[in-house]
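Sanity check

After download, print the first record. It should look like this:
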Amino acid sequence: MLLWKTGSERVDTLVRGTGLIRPQIATDGSIWTIGRQGTGSRIHAFGESGRPLSVQAPQLAGIVVLAFSLSPDLTRMAMVIRSRGRSRLAMARIRPGASDPQTIIVDGLSELPLGIVDRGLTLIADVGWVTTSSLIVLARATEDGPGSPYQLSLDGSGATTIGPMSGTDMVSLATLPRADGLNALVLTADGELLRYEDRYRWRRILTGAGQAAISF
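Expected structure tokens:
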């Protein structure tokens, strides 16, 4: 994973690892990613300057994380994990260590059984926070079904589809939490970048994209 700042002529290597997934810059400027370690996953975190942070996440030792998103208040981490042969949404808490406040503890991992609420939420592909208490997930009913966006509360309740209803296959998500409204982009399987405009309405703003992020 590389760190580059706007206007800089230097690119710094933060971490080399296996299976590193899309990084995220948190609201405090810290930088996070998750990679593979053995049969599980390891969290890599860095301060705004690139200094490594000490993170302990023992529950991830046997869990494969496919995607993640940090809550705006940095108290929770939403993760897409591989569990029992399926990709599911899970939630963990983030807190300072009791004996060492400089150590970050990620624990209390629990799965949210969204497929029970709506069959369309059987398989989770991506997740992103939009407020301190709500998220958007990309989900599908079956492996070969189209990915669709849903908004839900942090406890998994109140899941509501936010379209579009045309069967567009959405595969990747980028969000930026805000106090009002939704700030979200999705990437389709065809490389189209769509921006959230209103419920059930996503505007195409680019084609031929491979990944997307929203700047602060």
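If your output differs, re-run the checksum step. Summary of this record's structure: The chain has a mean pLDDT of 91.
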